[in-house]
Amino acid sequence: VRIEMGDAVELDAKGLHATLVGSVHIKQKPQSAMNATGELNVKEGQYKAYGQNLSIEQGELFFTGGAIDNPGINLRASKKINASSSTSGTNQLLDFNNTNLQNANLRGNITVGVEVTGRLIEPEIQLFSTPAILSQADILSMLVLGRPASQANKAGSQLLLTAISSMNLGNGTK
């Protein structure tokens, strides 16, 4: 069976809301698992993680003949942050190592996000920032709390530890 996505196929599950394009060819032999080949791409969408809405820049599921429930995944989702905006409830400015920000001539804008690769059942997650001047802790803190790790209060620090332990953050050594 070949399944082709129409003009308005949307997926809304587990924090992901996306419009999909592409096609998948599904096969199943008697007494065996369903297999698939093909590719589905995210035309546009958002991914919600830890209460933050991230815009999907790129997203695809690719099926290479294996089990239909474990496709390859390649997803990049991010949000832009104005590094010079105030934190809620304080007069303090976000401090992302201001020397680096000034040297990068950012004018206060930075992008933080996640890249998810590998297989759907066991994905590898990498955090990124553009420009690449933030530590992994600050990127995760910006995603979870909306401020750098150095400005996290006790409750925020606990939330970060929970986030770190729940994510399969890749270190490039698989």
Proportion in β-strands: over 45%
Name the overall outline.
elongated
Poorly predicted runs of 5 or more residues: 86-106, 170-174
Number of strands: 8
Mean pLDDT: 76
End-to-end C-alpha gap: 35 Å
Structural class category: alpha+beta
Our Rg estimate from Cα atoms comes to 19 Å
Main sheet summary: 8 strands, antiparallel
Write the element-wise H/E pattern from the N-terminal end onward: EEEEEEHEEHH
Which percent bin holds the helix content?
10-25%
By DSSP (H or I, 4+ residues per run), the number of helices equals 3
Structure, described:
This protein is of the alpha+beta class and 174 residues long. It is 16% helix and 47% strand. The protein has three helices and eight strands. The chain has helices at 98-103, 136-144, 154-166; strands spanning 2-4, 9-13, 16-27, 35-49, 52-67, 72-82, 109-119, 123-130. Strands 1, 2, 3, 4, 5, 6, 7 and 8 form an eight-stranded antiparallel sheet that branches. A hairpin with a 2-residue loop joins strand 2 (9-13) and strand 3 (16-27). The longest helix has 13 residues, at 154-166.
Characteristics of this structure?
alpha+beta, 8 strands, 16% helix, disordered C terminus, eight-stranded antiparallel sheet, 174 residues
Quick overview of this protein structure:
This protein is α+β, with helices and mostly antiparallel strands.
Give the helices and strands, then pairings.
Layout: E1 2-4, E2 9-13, E3 16-27, E4 35-49, E5 52-67, E6 72-82, H1 98-103, E7 109-119, E8 123-130, H2 136-144, H3 154-166
Antiparallel strand pairs: 1-3, 2-3, 3-4, 4-5, 5-6, 6-7, 7-8
